[in-house]
Design a protein that fits this description.
Blueprint: H1 2-27, H2 31-37, H3 40-68, H4 74-115
Length: about 120
């Protein structure tokens, strides 16, 4: 009697462990099938942006490879890089504003001199 219970348990476990993933594999559509279900406008936009997305992904992977060369964890190096970029962006924004202010002042001086 115990042998029959064990056989049933092993058979049902095997069916679940093998049949479940097989069912998911059978039911899940491929990328081509999903793409063919898009409306034509979405297909066109997806094709136009494909190269841009691939370049973004390649850049992301290259940055991760670069970050992994450090002794620090990747997320720490990532945060440091984000902070550097933010500081660089702030610095560039300040330079741009100073240049715009200097250009505006130059225009004011030219207008004053042209009026006199």
């Amino acid at each position: 009697m115990k042998t029959i219970t064990w056989v049933k348990m092993l058979a049902s476990g095997g069916i679940m462990c093998i049949g479940g993933p097989a069912l998911i594999y059978y039911v899940t559509p491929t990328e081509e099938e999903l793409f063919s279900r898009y409306n034509p406008d979405l297909q066109r936009r997806s094709l136009e942006r494909r190269q841009e997305k691939q370049e973004d992904f390649d850049g992301f992977v290259n940055r991760l490879k670069e970050y992994s060369k450090s002794d620090k964890p990747i997320w720490t190096v990532w945060e440091q890089e984000v902070e550097k970029r933010r500081q660089l962006g702030i610095t560039q924004e300040l330079h741009r504003r100073k240049a715009a202010a200097a250009e505006a002042e130059t225009r004011r001086q030219e207008m004053k001199s042209s009026l006199q």
